[in-house]
Structure formats: C-alpha cells, structure tokens
Amino acid sequence: MIPTSETMDPEKTDMSVFEEVESEVRSYCRSFPTIFEKAKGYKLWDRQGREYIDFFAGAGTLNYGHNESGMQKRLIEYLTSDGIVHSLDMATSSKEEFLSRFQDVILKPRNLEYKVMFPGPTGTNAVESALKLARKVTGRQTVVSFTRGFHGMTLGSLAVTGNAFKRKGAGIPLTGAVSLPYDQYNENIDSLTLLERYLEDKGSGVDLPAAVILETVQGEGGINAASFEWLKQVEQICRRYDVLLIVDDIQAGCGRTGTFFSFEPAEIQPDIVCLSKSLSGYGVPFAVTLFRPDLDTWAPGEHNGTFRGHNLAFVAATEALRFWETDAFSREVQRKGDRVKAALQKIADKHPDLITQVRGRGLMLGMEFPKEGLADEVCSEAFKRGLIMETSGPNSEVVKLLPPLIIDDEGLDKGLGILEESIESAAKKIS
Amino acid sequence: MIPTSETMDPEKTDMSVFEEVESEVRSYCRSFPTIFEKAKGYKLWDRQGREYIDFFAGAGTLNYGHNESGMQKRLIEYLTSDGIVHSLDMATSSKEEFLSRFQDVILKPRNLEYKVMFPGPTGTNAVESALKLARKVTGRQTVVSFTRGFHGMTLGSLAVTGNAFKRKGAGIPLTGAVSLPYDQYNENIDSLTLLERYLEDKGSGVDLPAAVILETVQGEGGINAASFEWLKQVEQICRRYDVLLIVDDIQAGCGRTGTFFSFEPAEIQPDIVCLSKSLSGYGVPFAVTLFRPDLDTWAPGEHNGTFRGHNLAFVAATEALRFWETDAFSREVQRKGDRVKAALQKIADKHPDLITQVRGRGLMLGMEFPKEGLADEVCSEAFKRGLIMETSGPNSEVVKLLPPLIIDDEGLDKGLGILEESIESAAKKIS
Amino acid sequence: MIPTSETMDPEKTDMSVFEEVESEVRSYCRSFPTIFEKAKGYKLWDRQGREYIDFFAGAGTLNYGHNESGMQKRLIEYLTSDGIVHSLDMATSSKEEFLSRFQDVILKPRNLEYKVMFPGPTGTNAVESALKLARKVTGRQTVVSFTRGFHGMTLGSLAVTGNAFKRKGAGIPLTGAVSLPYDQYNENIDSLTLLERYLEDKGSGVDLPAAVILETVQGEGGINAASFEWLKQVEQICRRYDVLLIVDDIQAGCGRTGTFFSFEPAEIQPDIVCLSKSLSGYGVPFAVTLFRPDLDTWAPGEHNGTFRGHNLAFVAATEALRFWETDAFSREVQRKGDRVKAALQKIADKHPDLITQVRGRGLMLGMEFPKEGLADEVCSEAFKRGLIMETSGPNSEVVKLLPPLIIDDEGLDKGLGILEESIESAAKKIS
Amino acid sequence: MIPTSETMDPEKTDMSVFEEVESEVRSYCRSFPTIFEKAKGYKLWDRQGREYIDFFAGAGTLNYGHNESGMQKRLIEYLTSDGIVHSLDMATSSKEEFLSRFQDVILKPRNLEYKVMFPGPTGTNAVESALKLARKVTGRQTVVSFTRGFHGMTLGSLAVTGNAFKRKGAGIPLTGAVSLPYDQYNENIDSLTLLERYLEDKGSGVDLPAAVILETVQGEGGINAASFEWLKQVEQICRRYDVLLIVDDIQAGCGRTGTFFSFEPAEIQPDIVCLSKSLSGYGVPFAVTLFRPDLDTWAPGEHNGTFRGHNLAFVAATEALRFWETDAFSREVQRKGDRVKAALQKIADKHPDLITQVRGRGLMLGMEFPKEGLADEVCSEAFKRGLIMETSGPNSEVVKLLPPLIIDDEGLDKGLGILEESIESAAKKIS
C-alpha cells in the first residue's frame, strides 16, 4: 500500500517531528497516523494508550507476537551479562548455539541438508547473496522471476521484483532478470508451458537462466498462493534444465503458512532458500541464506557486510526455535488459518459485489477488492476501530491478514469483527 | 582481509559447528579462530576466558566500545517495559526521540539541514537509497565512484565499489558507475583535473553523472585519507556541473576521525550522507540516509524494507548522542589519534624496509606493508598475543587500526606494544 | 543453418583460399561448397560452369533476380557518366529521385505518410535507428520482441533477436528487451493476452516498453507467419498503451509476401518500418527506416554513418520501383506463391512422417522437418542437384523457399522437382 | 559537425524533396546545401554545374578520389558480364581474388598474419564483430576505449564512442565500456600510467578488460594523433595484462596517414584491426575485420549479415590494391601531407588569435579554432567558395582536411587558398 496524504488523519496525534525531519519516503506512518509506544503479543498501544489488534505483524516479522516473553528474558539476560553483541562473522557462542539448534530443530527433522550463510541482517541481503551464488555456480546471468513477485529494494533484488513503482525507483535499468507469469496469473496462459518453452527453445530470446526465484505465497504481490502441483512442476522443469530453484521464504516462511518452510507441503526441495523477517522471532534484523552443500563455492569474504553477526538476533532466534520442537505450533497455525479463511469467505459471500476472492494459506490471507481505493479505505476504517492491517497487490487491491501466529481465537474474532464493520463502512464511503 | 586456511590456527578451539554448518563465505572466524562470548569496552573474552584488546571495533561499528553501560541500561529498560521493537516505518516514541535528538545534537549545531531517511538497517541500504535518490532527482544514471572505494555488497553499492574480488562476486556486469582515481592515487595523475575534464568534455565518453560518491577516508580500501583541499575541490566541481555529492560516512563517520561527520574539517556540505556502523552505538543494525530537504522527492514507500523501524537501535542511538553534547569527546579522539599516529610513525621509522607509510585521520589509521602476506601475518601474530586487528587494501597490504574511541591510554599502549612485537615476529616469518 | 564440416563436400572445388585466409565464421560457403562467378535472373553459375537454380535469393535480397537488366543498364550508365557514388547524407540527384519515386509509387498509393531515414546500408542499421528513435520519442527503454524474431547482429538488434547461438555471440548481456511469445508459439499460451497483461499490470515486472518490434513473417526464425488478426490485435494493444509498433520488413517486405509491405493485407499501419535486403533491387547494400512524421524528433546527425549515401543503391532502387507501378507484379507473386505452396503441401502429404507443416505467405515458404539434421540434409542434397536453398529455425529444422519473385513457372517446377528428389534422398540417409 | 538551420543557405537550390520527405536526422546536406550530380578525382559538380574541390573525401571514404578510372572500368566490366553481385558469405571468384591479393599486396609484405572476416559492409559492423570476438576469446566483458574516440552508431560501437550527443541517441545506457584519456588529453594526466594502474590495481573499480580499442589518429574526435611512443606503450601494457589491442583503422587506414595501416610507423601489431571506408576504393560499402589466426574462435555463422558478400566492393577493392604494389603512392601521400601541414602551419602562424593548433598525420589534418562556431563558419565560407570541408571534435572546433590522396598539388594549393580566404572571412563574421 502506498498511502497518500488523503489516507492520513493528521489531527489525531502531533506527528510534526516526523513530518519535518523524516523523509517523504515514510509510508506506514501515514496509514497509521499515531505514535506507538508499547506492544505485547498481538496488541500494540499508542502514546494515548489506545490499544490496537495487530493483523499486520510487522509485515510478517512478528509471527511470535511482540515481545514474546521467552525471548525477552533471554535477551535481557544476554545484555545484562555483557554477551558480545556485534561480531561480524567471527565465531561466537550465541551463533554456535543458533547454528546447532537450527540444524537440530529445523533442518534435520525435515531431511534438509543446507549450509547456512549469514548474508547481512535483512531479506534483501539474503536475496542478493542467493542471486550471486546462483550466478557463480552456473556461470549464467539471467534469473527468472515471476509477475507480482517481491524480493527487496536493493538493485539485485529489485530486478527480480515485479512492482513497477518500486522498480522505477531504481533510476537505472534493472538487468539480469526475466519476469514470467506466476501460477494462475491468467487463465489463458499456461505459465508452466511458457517457462518450459522459454528454457527449451533455442530461439526463445530468453537466455538459459542461472535460477528461478519465487515465493510460494506472494505477500506483497497480493497474497497469491501457488498450487503445490505448480511448485512441483517448476521444480521439475528446473531440474530438467539444470537451473537452480530459489525459494524466497522471507514472508511466507517461519511458520506463516503453517509449516516452518512454506514449501514443505509442496514436497519440493529448493536449491537455495532465503529466510528473514520472523527468523529472529523478536523483530530484530536477521536473515540467512540456505543452500545445498555442493553449491557452497563461496570464497571467504566474497560476500560480506557489517551486521552479519547480530548476536541479539542469534539469541532470540535460538529461543524462537522452541516453537518448532514439536508439531503442535504448526497444527495450531493451520487450525487458525482455516478458521480465519472460513470467516473471510463468509464475509465475502455476503459482499460478492465488493470482494472477488479470498485467498492464501495458513495465516497469510487476503481478500481482493477490485474497486479502486476500497481496500485502502477498509484498512483506514479498521485502523480507526483499533485494528492494524495493510493492503497488498500492485494496485493495493488486496486486504492482507497477517496476524501474529500466537494470536488466540478471541483476538482473531475481535479482529474479524472489526474487519467486517470496516468493510461495510468503507463501502459506503467509496461507493 | 581474506583469510585462507593458511592463516588459521584450527587446533586452538573446537570450531566444528562453524566448519560443518556455516558457509565457506565466512571470513573473520578464520583470522580469529576462537569463539567469543563476552565483551565490554575495548575488550573481548573468548570461551576459554582469554582476553583480547580490540583494535578492530567491529570494523568501525563499536566506536563507543562493547556494551557501553549507558546504552545497555536503556536497552534493558526498553525491553523490560515491552517497548515496541519492530515497527516498519510507523511512528514510535523511540524513533521520535531519535529524530529530535539527532536534529538537536548533531545537525543544528553543525548548521546542517538534512532530511532523515531510514533506508533499512545496514550501510548498503543507505548507499542504495542514496544512489536511487540521486538518479531520481537528476534524471541521470551514471555515478562516479573512486578507486579503492567500498560501499557495500548489494548490486547497486557493489557497482560503486572498487575491489575486483568483491565485484566479481556479482556474477553479472555492474552498471551505472564510473571509477575515477581517488586523491593521491598516483603522482602522475591529477585526479581533480581528470574528474573535471570528464564532466566538461562533451567527447569524454563519460556520461554526465547523477552524483559523485566518496569516503573521506577509505576504510576497506587501505586507510586512504583524502586531503581537505581535494574534498573541497571535488565539492566545487560537483557544484559547477550540478552533480550531487554523496559522502559515504559509514565507516569514517560517527566520530571515527575525530568529528561526528568525517567531512567537517574539510568544510564541505555533501548533498547526501550515508551513516551506519557506529550510528546505533551498540553494534545493532542501523543506518540513515541524510539529504538536503529540496532533494526529498521520494514518493511514499518508493523505497522500503522490513527493518527500517528497529527500535532497539533508535533507543541506543539516542543514548549514544550524549557523547556529542559537548566537544570533549571529539577532542579526546583527536588527542588519541595523534598519540597513536606518532607511535605508529615511530615503529615505521624503525622498520623502513617493512613499512612504507603510516596514514589516516583520528582513530582510523593504517600502516602499509608492501611485502605480500606480511600485513596478514602481523594481524595473525597480534591475535596470538591477544590483539584483534584486521588488514585492508586490495591486497590486504595495510594493517588497520580502529580501536573503540572510548579506549584509554593504557589500552592503546598495550595494543601498540603487541603490535610492535607482532611486526617483528611476522617479519621474521615472512622474510 | 549453421553448416559444419560434415555438411561440406570439399573435394569438388579448390576452396583453399577461403579456408586459409577467411575467418572460421564463414558459413554459407560450407553449405554451398563451390565458387560462384555469374548470375542472372533465378540462376547462378559456378567456376566450373555448373548451373544452379536459386531458391535462396540472397536470403531475400534478390527479389527481382540477379542482375536484373533494367537496373543493370541504369547502373552501368550511372557509373559511366561519373555519377557521384558516395555522398554521405549530402543531397544528390539520384537520392532525390529515389525519395520522390518512393513517395509516389509506394507511400502515397498506400496512404502511408512516412518520413524516410537513411540509417546506413544494412538491415541492422535500420533496426538500430528504429530502436533509438522509439526510445527517444517515448523516453522509455524496454522494447518487446518476439520468440524466434531476427533483427540483426549489432548489439541493439541482437538484443531483440531470439536465437540463443547468435545472442551468445554478443559476449555481454543484451539489455533493454523482453521476449514474448509470437503468434501460434504454443497452443496453451495466448500470446495477445500475455502481451496485454504485461503492459497493463503494474506488478508484471515488465517495464512499460517504448515499442514492440516484429516481423509479420519470421524468416530466420522458421517461416512463421502471424495471422492478420494477431497483427491487428498487437497494433491495437500498442495503441492502447501508447507503445510504438515497429515492423521489421527487411526480409518479408519489398514484395516477398505478395505486397510491397508485408503488413498491407493485415491492414495495420506501423509507426516505424525497417526496409533493406531487396530494397536496392540489385543486391547492393541499402536500407531505410520509415516513420510517422510526428515521430521525427531526430536532431541533425544524431545517428550517422559513412555509407548512408550509397548512390548506386539509389539508382537501382529507383529503377526497381517500376515493378510496383501497377499491381500486376504483386498479383503474379501471389499466384506463384499459391502454386508453390500447393506443391509443397502435396509433397508434405506424401511424407507425413518427415514433414509436419508447410507454412508462410507469398513466396516466403517453409517446410518443417522435425527430425534432427534432416532439413540440412535436404538442402545439401538439393545443392548437389543444382538447387540452392537454406534452412531456418532455431534448430535449422525448416527448409526455406525464397525464390526470386521474377522466377517463371518453369524454374519453379524444376526447383520443386529437385526439392522432392532431395527430400527422398535425404530421408534415406538420415533415417 | 552538427549543422543547424542557421548554417544553411536554403535559397540556392530547391531542396524541398529532402526537406519534406527525408528525416530531420539529415546533416551534411544542411552544411552543403546543394544537389550533387557528378564527381571525378578530387572534384564534384552540383546540378547547376558548379565545381567543388573535395577536402572531405566522404569522411575518408574516397582516398583514391571519385570514380577512379581503373576501378570504374572493372566495375562496368563486372556488371556487364553478369558477375554475381550479392552472395552473402558464399565463395565467389571476386572474393577469392580480393582475399588473395589482399594477402599478397598488404599482409605478407608487412609480415602481418591475419585472418580476414567480412562482418557486414560498414565500419560499425567491423567494430561490433571485433568487440564480440575479443569478449569471446577472453571471456571478459569490459572494453577500454578513449576520450574522443569514434567507432560507430550501433549499440556496441556507440558504447566505445566518446561523443555525448551521439551516445545520448542510444536511449539506453551503454554498457561494457570504460573511457580512458587518450594521448595528450591533458598535460596533468599521464594516460599510460592511468591505464596501467587501472589494469594492475585490484581495487581500481575497472574490471580487467577484454580489449583496448583505439584509433591511431582520431578523425571524428578532432584529428588527435597519438604519438608512436604512446601507441607502443599501450601495446606493451595490453601484452602485459593479456588484453587484446584493437585498432579501428576505418578512417585513418587505407593510406590516409601515409601508410596502408596507420599503425605501421608505430611498429605495433594489433591483435584485431577494423577496416572500412576507403577499403572498397570506390565509395561502395565494404568492411573487414582482421585478427590473429589464433583468435579465430568463431563458430560458423556466429556473426552474420546480409551484405557480407558485396561483390562490387570485392572487385573495386581488389583493383584499389594496385596503389599499394610499390611504396610510391605511400611516399606521395607523405610528401603531400607535409606540404599541406606546412601550409596550414603558415596560416595558423598568421592567425594565432584564431587558430591554436595544426595537427594530424599524412593527409589527415586539422586546425583547431577554439572560438565557438568559428570552425563551422570557416567550412560554410569555404563551401560558398567551392571547397568542401567539414569540422570535427566534440564542439565542432576543428576544421578537418581529408583531401583524396590522389589529389595533385594544384588542387591542394587551390583548396588551401580558399581555406585561407574562408578563415579570414569567417573571422570577420564571428568576431
């Protein structure tokens, strides 16, 4: 969502410092025009003490909620004990623990053999390093991405991102990428056939790519969930042409769709996986790039960065892994996802004129409002009623639901109630 | 420094987790083959309890030392009180406080009028956003960078980075940049004349650039300090051709050279400034991009990112500003810088066959060892003696000194003593 | 077709000069291993006096046959009279006459209002200038091209060319182009829907293009003829999104498909048209770029070149226009085209196991032989029998028929007879 | 020179056809606003029968003058005998003869062992193929070019061209090239040191190039003649770093500077040489790319083009080689060059306020007029007096003299007389 001055409600709070000192590029503070102070679980409070239910979760960064008590305790202990905080890529105890636990709790039980790279603490660092590695290993340059994909704002990641507004921000042509239709992009286009033809046909004009990069559920692109069959086919096509498959699991991963990795139920094994957002569990910057051991052709220091050794993130991320020791958490997310999806479908059925589709997986859900501006208005109305939600899609046409995974049914029901009211109110305004 | 297996000493510590699970791209853990646990001020301790003096400071990220007590206290309080940790670019109290204090303590006293952008929490995010903005404002695409410059590992920043090894990692051609000689690059090349001729000559083959990007002291490039006169001339040439001047003050800023911004004594006013590394003060990821208000042509959300609202960084960074309320800290850094430089020069004078130059500004200093491998060996010997230092320069030919700015004279003297021993020992090995 | 040493028959003629002195890049001399000396109409003779029927016509450059007598006479007169031969883009009488006659004979009767640019004497010059102009006029950079398209070997044209082997020759990434499926590329892909979706969808990852470039019948790409309906739809989509339509009529134009411009029967009016090959009529280098007068935003000399004023080409091209004074020639080409197509279909019907399709328009026809190497073998057998033909398509899978348009029925029948024999003989060899 | 409407004199001749039908990109017809009809030797005549002395020679394409009788006779004979005119890259007798004679008359006597490639009939085809080959052979992408260099208008050649106006015409960023200072570009810049530092320094930000491309005398760039010593040093630097040396001898070659190849007196042996312009001798399109046999890694057809087999050019070019059977022609060119240079210097000495330098080699000479617009005015005055000359240099500040090499002393003296008058007349107008 790109909020404009019209979507703001500036009288509520004195936001003059932001208006005067911060760049015009600021965005969410325009949609949510208040000053936040505290947060716990699925709730936030602003300076005036107003309470908000969080259906946004830091764009998928707070899957375990705000200030999750276990991690909070560990962080405070670590800080208190003068644990080393910044270590570049030196070895530290907290990094060692994270690596061991991640191996034991996540990779091994899923039969995934991956090396772990710390590419810098943000999603776009993970994507840039994945693209570098794929190009290095294959000696090829092109990367296939998909319509509506979103992978980050630095130049390499932006080149594989679909959004025209973001792309234009580059100010120079974005190179090395080819955008192909995502699953269900259009009923008259068989996206798998097109992908395969482009790779196989020596006259296609598409150079054999180093890799295909995709999200299994596109978050920023409008909550588009690829079918498992499509994902499997893409993997097979990649194998056939010796093209690497990169799954950007930055938003859909870490349990958002119900499993730790979003691709698990599709039964695919990407060559490279990017994780960030909820990986630290506490909202502090953190990212990893995972890849098949035989792809680990990096020379020491070939990719580097100042904040690759953010030990507060190691500490919190290690603690967060306790959610994954059994499959209880995973099953709960799926249960809640089903519950919310059913509720959304019910709302949609009541408003077939407003809402064309409910979609998504797990607790990554969206409702499409084709009428221009309506989805934004819904979020604006929701905010007034104490619910934080954002839109996604190239025209901000989708209301996106990303509640913290730890939310209870009471919280969900309350949020869904507000959502329904907001839709009705927004529809009146926009009609 | 790119450590190789030869520079490691693997028997000391069990580093098997790192060797088995972490990518081959890991680097510093090979130069410093131990597992760190704690750190305070200018000291670190490893798992075996060995103490190390830190002349590295997280590559300039820990100017105020490890776990600085004031910030530590504030962070623990903030965490304990359930302060909001992750907020994207929503308004928060801690962000508001940072913006106000940064304005009051840093910008206003220096008569600098800049808008503040939070481009994501790492240096390369700041550089990428600076390049985007320069291209947007001017409608031009080329950016002039300098030999030996280092600006980051994502594709846009890498294009303005000089190091061939890092550049090659991109796997695709780096576009939109032209590399010109930095100050004192070669005595037969007048770098200012070349810059000006390239801009003025309609047949130069160099398209009129959007911006010139530079570090006033090149950290990774080998501690090359531009003269103030050169910086002034570059600024004037930029003004003459309506080209924006970007100072990447990520390593040299935040007091490293003795003033908050490294460019202050040169009496220039860049159009855009990138800060990161020591900006949070505590080693947690943080970065800002500063620019002249009239350049603030960003549309809301045109550049975004998940970790733009890292409130632990706001909290620590605000506290760190207390070092800048008077000029006492600045004077102390300069005093220590002079002291260390004199000591290094004395060492260099004793070893004219080994050391060709002592250079740098403030506490950002380097000694050049032209003999291949010698500078690496010096650092390796230093590590064995409990001193952490790294090399820089395209051939790792410069021993780089970046002690925390808060280090006391005792710490400096002890470190310098180890350095001198290490040089002697290394020289014997390498000769 | 990329001939290899296996397709040669080196004993026939002493070709040692070519083998020793000319680069390995030479190609057709390997398929047709003899030394040609004379040519007239649709026949060639080699040094040994062997006669060949020409079903190749210089890849569509000799639509009026070799050494057409009217042009021959004019050229000899012009040379004899010391007419100016080389004039850059100065005004000359022969250029004036060409411009006037082209206007009167070609443009006006077709209600086409185009400015004429002389971009250099080859097709790729015309394409490069068309791309430059489209980018200049629109201020956009991307150009949409199509699978199997062929537009030339210089870097700009190569970027819009589909053939992987040719593209790889560039040695650097080809930028500024997006390749989309041509008409009938695949039955599961609605190429018009995809084109439109890519332009309309702000999240498609395809930047709004400056232009769409296409051939109405793809010559090198395998004699793929777009339907008139498809061409009309492409034109309409271009209009809708304010994207320029460039028709590269270099091979299909100048009467090859039965009308002067190949796009006439589709009733479209491209914004820019590229002509070359048969434009001079005599096989001498010549090209023009035509465009809507309001697009003529060129500054004087913004595109230039040494051989823009090749007056022998002006003289011959002016004379060639006499073929277009009435529609008799056009009707004859269509009649012969129908005749040949019917004959080919008859052959194909006899060999359904070998030949999967007969396709093309006018005298630009092809037969597809899916079996690897078979089409090459057919041409090789034909050559031995005195018929010159080449293959096309990304895998050289199509036998391509481009006889001179002036060929008589006797010549056609003789050539078709040889073709049939050659197919039978080749099929035996390859099976 | 970029003529504008102000430099035209439109009343003289009815040029309405050109104004109405030809694109605004036309250029020389604005400087020389008349319609040419005939030409012989060093003279041209327009429609009104006015005679002009040619000091332009088709920008160096007519070294042997217009309609040279020997070639004229051969061309007429060839046409009359139905010699094959267009042959793609099939073998023909006329091509064989050219290859043999070129080998015997040009390459062998100079101890040059080169394979010959026919890359298409224009200079830019030769340059594009040279760049492709250099990139293929080395596997590198960057090419070093020089300030003020001119290599052609297609995208690959334009990337190594210095002129900002021409470069901007590309409409997309030009990639794969780095522009370095040419010899004597500026007295404070040692261009050889800079080139060497850029190649040797692993932190220079300039990727190790595939090749260096240069003209020994820059024609379009302002008649800048590199010293032999500089050329030798560039060659040695290239050898040292295994970088290929490409000499673009399109304008300076074919005898223009007094030897067949312009680089002969510098005693260098380029790895790749581009020839065009005067190569056919008669002003018809023709070009070759020459390279060391071991570089001939082309696959058949990897670079192609319709007009690679322009047999009229083979015929004329073969005949033109008779000028090179002895060194008499070469000596004459040098004698005339000295004569003209002395005369120009004398004129310059008379007008030290107008003319800052006389420069060039052989019959490729220039006079620099720093005053804006003066050089254009000189050419305009010369035209009125019956002398055809153009300007060069990025600001059209150099009057360029390129008389046909066959001109006699009478013609030279007459032209020089007009030039002197024109300078005086122009100086009055512009002052």
TrEMBL record, chains A, B, C, D:
Pathway: Amine and polyamine biosynthesis; ectoine biosynthesis; L-ectoine from L-aspartate 4-semialdehyde: step 1/3. It comes from the Bacteria. SUPFAM superfamilies: PLP-dependent transferases. It is an enzyme of class 2 (transferase). It holds the Pfam family Aminotran_3. Its cofactor is pyridoxal 5'-phosphate. One of its GO terms (biological process) is ectoine biosynthetic process. Coiled coil: none annotated. Keywords: Aminotransferase, Pyridoxal phosphate, Transferase. GO terms for molecular function: diaminobutyrate-2-oxoglutarate transaminase activity; diaminobutyrate-pyruvate transaminase activity; pyridoxal phosphate binding. Its EC number is 2.6.1.76. The keyword Transferase applies. NCBIfam families: dat, ectoine_ectB, PRK09264.1. Belongs to the class-III pyridoxal-phosphate-dependent aminotransferase family. This is Diaminobutyrate--2-oxoglutarate transaminase.
